[in-house]
Amino acid sequence: MSDTLSKEDIIKLLPHREPMLLIDELNNIKKLHSATAIVNVKKDCFYVQGHFPDQPVMPGVLIVEAFGQAAAALTAHGIDKSTYENKLVFLMSVEKARFRNPVIPDCKLELNIEAIRSHGRVWKYKGEAFVDTKKMADAQWSATIVDRK
Q1: Which residues are tagged catalytic?
Q2: CA 112, CA 34: separation in Å to the nearest integer?
Q3: Strand 34-41 and strand 122-131: pairing?
Q4: For residues 20 and 9, what is the distance between their CA atoms, to the nearest angstrom?
Q5: pTM above 0.90, yes or no
Q6: Consecutive 10-residue averages of pLDDT for the chain (149 residues)
Q7: Most exposed residue of 14, 57, 63, 65, measured as fewest CB within 10 angstroms of its CB?
């Protein structure tokens, strides 16, 4: 399996589409264990235009969403295709989310994520978000794989 997934590869794994597909790349992949996701936070991103026009900031809730997308891509990439085909990954809980510094466009947000454990269709993850070497946010979350209706 590839050590890097492009946006095109991620689109094949996730149901998310523009403008809600936030991650642009997944690299440093260790199968079902960890990866680094790249989010290119640009001045023309849909959420920047209104949050806030005079001082643009990426909303913290979207950083958490990007964590979730990265984890879903890591998991889908690592498990057998028949296991995730016609499935969706739903966020179940977010714990210990901390937003340490505002994420200002134009930047490259790096999300270092790790699968902590899995039990059946429920997975628990943790992640840290950085711009350059500065920690911007961190969180833990749980997600489940469900049948697509």
Answers
A1: 51
A2: 7
A3: unpaired
A4: 16
A5: yes
A6: 87 94 98 97 91 93 98 93 83 97 97 96 97 98 91
A7: 57
